[in-house]
Structure formats: structure tokens, C-alpha cells
Write a structure and sequence with these properties.
Blueprint lengths: L2 H7 L1 H10 L11 H11 L4 H15 L4 H4 L4 H6 L4 H15 L5 H5 L3 H8 L7 H10 L12 H11 L7 H7 L7 H25 L2
Helix pairs in contact: 1-2, 2-13, 3-7, 3-10, 9-10, 11-13
Length: 207
């Protein structure tokens, strides 16, 4: 399904494309260890900040592997934007993949809920992180991350609701979008990021 076809199902997606532009932004991430590490890095960070920090890590390691990541000390990781907590999570992830305790190939072969259940066993990987990985790294078509703040605020604005929707309300509103809820999420992000960019541009113009 294309963004335009989804917009024909629900007019909020036409609005998302009007505000964000006709070409959908690329929200994809690599699969395997690099993609999962990137999701961990991005937790609770603004999109612009997260991209900048990821680019710094890629520049440092060139090829992001568990073994290469484990060569980096705490001080260097902090200089790359990792908090103390995220250093622990990222090291745990690298050690689990390098040591074979986390079999990402096996997880990739699982159905969505089984894959999520397997990923959240790792410290630092919650449901949000697992869902984002499945959607943006593995291209799963029907993921709807109701715990994502940008999804909550984006749907609120697009629907014209007075209050931020609950997770139950987000689940209900997305039922007609099955089995294309990943595309729906990307369109909501597309709209949300565009509004952030517009707000930054306005702030820069102020004297």
C-alpha cells in the first residue's frame, strides 16, 4: 500500500502528506546488531540528536559490530553521546550478540509478538524498542507503537483531539488501518517531524 492509498482510507494521512510533503521520509534502520544498537541509542532522544549521535558512532567504528563496539571504553562512549545507563544496555547487547546468547537470525524468523517477547528479555530493550526495530529494521508491515510519544501527539493533532490519546484509544483508532499500521505510523512521524522542523525554523527567525 502507498501513502496515498492509505490517505484515501483516512483523511488524516492526506493532511500528514500535505504538512510533511508528498515524499515520505526514510525512517529505516539497518537490521541486526547495528539496527538494535541504534534503537537503544535513540531512546528518549529527539530525532535530530539521535541521528547526529549515530553518525558520530559510525564515523568512529566505520562498520558497527558487537566486537568493535566492545573495544570502546566508557569515556569514549560518553563522548559519543551514551549516558551511563545506555553504556550498560549497549554493552549488554553487544556481549549477548557476540557471545551467541541473542540469536537475531532466529528472532527475525519469528512472528511479531514472539519476536517482541524475545527481544524484551534483554535489559534495556522494552516493547517500544522492540516494535521500532521490527518496523524500521525488519520492515514488518503491521506494527503500531502506541507507547511512542510522537505517535500519541501526532494522532492527537491530526484527529483534532483536545487531549493526548491513551494507548487504548490509539489501538482503537488504528483498527481500520490494519494490516498497514507501520505505514500509518510512518505517516504520523512524517507529519510530526515536519512540525518540529517548522517550529525550529520559526525560532531561528526570531531576533
Amino acid at each position: 500500500m502507498t501513502p496515498q492509498q492509505l490517505a484515501a482510507i483516512d483523511p488524516i494521512f492526506a493532511e500528514a502528506l500535505r504538512v510533511g510533503g508528498p515524499e515520505l521520509r526514510d525512517f529505516s534502520r539497518p537490521d541486526g546488531f547495528p539496527g538494535l544498537l541504534r534503537v537503544v541509542m535513540e531512546q528518549q532522544l529527539a530525532t535530530v540528536v539521535a541521528v547526529a549521535l549515530w553518525n558520530k558512532l559510525v564515523a568512529r567504528l566505520d562498520t558497527v559490530t558487537p566486537e568493535g563496539f566492545l573495544t570502546l571504553g566508557d569515556e569514549e562512549l560518553r563522548s559519543l553521546g551514551f549516558s551511563r545507563q545506555k553504556i550498560g544496555y549497549a554493552r549488554g547487547l553487544a556481549e549477548a550478540v557476540a557471545g551467541g546468547r541473542l540469536d537475531l537470525d532466529a528472532i527475525h524468523a519469528m512472528e511479531d509478538e514472539a519476536a517482541i517477547a524475545a527481544l524484551v528479555q534483554l535489559k534495556g530493550i522494552g516493547r517500544w524498542s522492540a516494535e521500532i526495530y521490527l518496523m524500521t529494521a525488519l520492515g514488518r508491515p503491521d506494527i503500531w507503537p502506541v507507547g511512542d510519544l510522537a505517535i500519541q501527539l501526532g494522532v492527537q493533532r491530526l484527529k483534532g483531539w483536545a487531549e493526548k490519546p491513551s494507548q487504548a484509544e490509539l489501538e482503537a483508532v488504528a483498527e481500520p488501518w490494519r494490516p498497514h499500521r507501520s505505514l500509518a505510523a510512518q505517516l504520523v512521524w512524517h507529519h510530526y517531524v515536519a512540525l518540529q522542523e517548522q517550529a525550529r525554523a520559526k525560532r531561528k527567525k526570531r531576533p
